[in-house]
Each structure stands twice: as C-alpha cells, then as structure tokens.
Amino acid sequence: MTQAVQAYSYAGPSTLTDGRLGLSTSGGTALSGPQTHPRFFSGLLTHAAPAAAGLLAVADVALARYHQPRPGWTRDPVVTCDGGRLRFESFSACGGVYARLDVLELDGDVLDRGTTNVDVNGPLRESLARVGGRDPLHLGVGPDELTVTTLDGAVVEKKVPLPSRWLRGFAEVQVIASGWDLRAELAGPHAVRFLRSLPKGARSTVWAVPSGRDLRVASGPARGPKVGAVCLSGTGRVATLLPLLRFAKALRVYGPADGSSTASGWELELPGMRYTLAVSPEPWRGFSGEGAVLSDLSTDEAAGDADVVGMLLNFEPTVELGLLADRSGLPIDRVRAALTQLGTAGRVGYDLHEAAHFHRELPYDKEQVAQLNPRLTAARALVDSGAVRLLGETAEVTTGGGVRRVRIAEGECTCPWWFDHRGSRGPCKHVLAARIAARVAVEVAP
C-alpha cells in the first residue's frame, strides 16, 4: 500500500490549563498565505463541556482502527476556520469512518481564515475528559506571540504515515455524502434511547427504520410501503456518539434516497455545535474504494476547471454551485466535477446539514490525484494503448485477461469486477476507458 509521510512541527504541545485551551498548530494555508504556525481564533466557547467532549470524540476517531484494531496510529485532527465557525475533522485509520465537529458559536476574535492540523496529545485528552460545568472555555487556535518566543526548547515534531486509501477516503466521502438525504430526525430523548439500544458488537449490522417520531432497530431493510430505512454496518463505529448523548438536542440520520448504498451519516445537534459521523458500507470497507469520484475525474476538463474554481474559493462557510458557475463561466455539471477534483486534493468537504460543500485546504499534493485513483490511471492507459474499440452504444476493451464488453451508458461490463460489485463501488477501469474513448471520439468528429 502506497504511503506518504506527513511531518508536523508544533511550537509546543497543546494544553488545557485554568480554563484556557491552547491548540498548537502545524503548517497550513490561510487567506494571508502559507503559515508555519497559523493563528485563527482567540476567544470563548460558551458551551465548554460539549465542546471538549466533541473535540475528544473527533480525536478518538483519528486514533481508531475499527477493522482489525492495532495500535500505532497518531494522526492529528484538522481544523478549518471560515470566519464564523470552526470545523474539526478526522478520519479513522481504517478509512471507514469520517468525523467532524462544527463549532457554530464563536465569541472572540477571528484572526485569520484557513486550515491547519492541531496537536491533540495524551495529557490534553485527559484534561478534555475532565471538562464539565457551565463555565465558558477560552480557546486559542494557534500559539500567541509570547508562546512562540518562549517555547524554543519545547518543539513537538511528529511524522505520520498516511496510507493512500486514507487520502482517497477524504475525497470519496464528500462525493458520496452529497447524494444523501435526511432520512430521520429524532428529538434528544428519542435519540438517546435509540443509540443506547444499538447492539454493542463492533461488527453488528442493523437497519434504522423510521417509526413515527422514533427509530427502531431492525435486522433488515424495511419492505413494502415502509421506506427510509438506513443501514448501519458495524454499530461499534458510532461509539463516539455515546459520550455526547448527555448534551444531545437532536439526532439526524442521512442516507441515499434510493437505498443504493449502505453507507450512512449520523449527526448530533449539540448546544452551539454539531457532531457528524459518516460510516462506510462495511467495517472492512473503507471509503477509498467506493469509486464515487471516478466519473467526474475522468473528464478531460476536470483538472483545468478545478484550477479555475479553486482560485474562486475563499474559505466560505458554504460553497454555492450557482455562484461558482456564474463567476467561472462554467456549467453546473463541470463545476460539480471540478469540486470533485478539488475534493481529491483535500480542498473541499461536504456538510450534510447545510447540503453544501465547504472550502478547506488539506496539505496534500494535487499532483497525487492520478496516483490515488489507480482505476482511472489504468483506464487512461487502456485508451492510450488503443485497447478500446467503440461499437456505437457498446465497446470492446482488450486486456491481458481477454476482451471485455461494455455497455457505455449503463456502465455494465463483462469483467469480474463488475460481476462482483454491479456498479456499487463505481465504474470498473473498462467502463471508464470506454467512456473516455467515447468522449474523445465526439470531440474529434467533424
């Protein structure tokens, strides 16, 4: 498995002392330009206990490996400041769970907008777990000038291997989530009762079926006139919701309207903030292999359009497709494909509650996009080698394993991949190759 090594250098460890939470930052992109230790916010979190518990939950997901657990993962969460809120994000080591805490009520000074990693160390985790009561918590995202000058001997350095499937997961989850709808919403007491009724086994699979103002647990999807059931495969993967239940005002559950995927989204409404989990279809199945980004990435315009759209992003709380289309002069479908390309480079995420993308800048090299999507690389190689023969609405793709017959519009193929997944994990390389070749043929036709 390909891995990139991300190096973090903090001016000092993050600390929580006397009601002051100082989050140390490492590198990042801001409106003011690249920063070694960016400063984004200094002020009060009016809801200290849920904020501390939510940040700890995000950090717990970053440390977790839900499929075949083993120690050794030390990934730090990412924080984005958009001027009106803070978004803390993380991804599990196994690539199957995405977590985000949106802090919506900020009382203080926004010093800059941008994205950075924050240090969450062992002592800080212990301190966060002890936060309680109603007192506000002072938060500083980034070291102040005094801290930077007095911690020369306390530099914290971390080198973290990032598997390619982890990097791809960030892109895939935002594309998959953009196709989900709100399937159920429960008030606080109902949310507590439902989540505590889930089986404790990490590998248990259940279906959440709407029942009046509640959800009930079922062993399979609803049949007949009952619709809206959402699958949760690996109930232990939503365990980080449980410590937050004492603050829960509501639970919202998201999933595909047509039931085409068993991935799902779980969002807790907390005082002044929201905590969101996106869970892949199976505990062993990370988001990285879902292939949701491949159709958009395979277009010839995607990379160029992404450069145009990327220059228009400004760390907005929500990215409006229509506004980007007007400013870029591109049609909506090409803007959406450009956002997919930007998502693969870690530059946009998706907010289920807002039903909109948001801008952030993860420290990933956009040149790695092709390397992170081997199916797309293989498809382009097939086209370049002349392996695709177009036959109207179908195509034949010649490979070392024989000739694969493709129905281009339907995305069907005679290869083993398609028979195994039936399109549930995106198009195979033969379908991608046929579609690329078909677009090229249209472009060169007189």
Plain-language structure description:
The protein contains twelve helices and 26 strands. By secondary structure, it is an alpha+beta fold. Strands 5-4-11-7-8-9-20-19-18-14 form a ten-stranded antiparallel beta sheet, sandwiched between helices. The protein has a five-stranded mixed beta sheet with strand order 2-3-12-6-10. A four-stranded antiparallel beta sheet has the order 23-24-25-26. The longest helix has 16 residues, at 48-63. Mean pLDDT is 83; it is low at 145-153. This is SWIM-type domain-containing protein.
Summarize the structure.
Keywords: Metal-binding, Zinc, Zinc-finger. With 446 residues, the protein is α+β, with helices and mostly antiparallel strands. The chain has 12 helices and 26 strands.
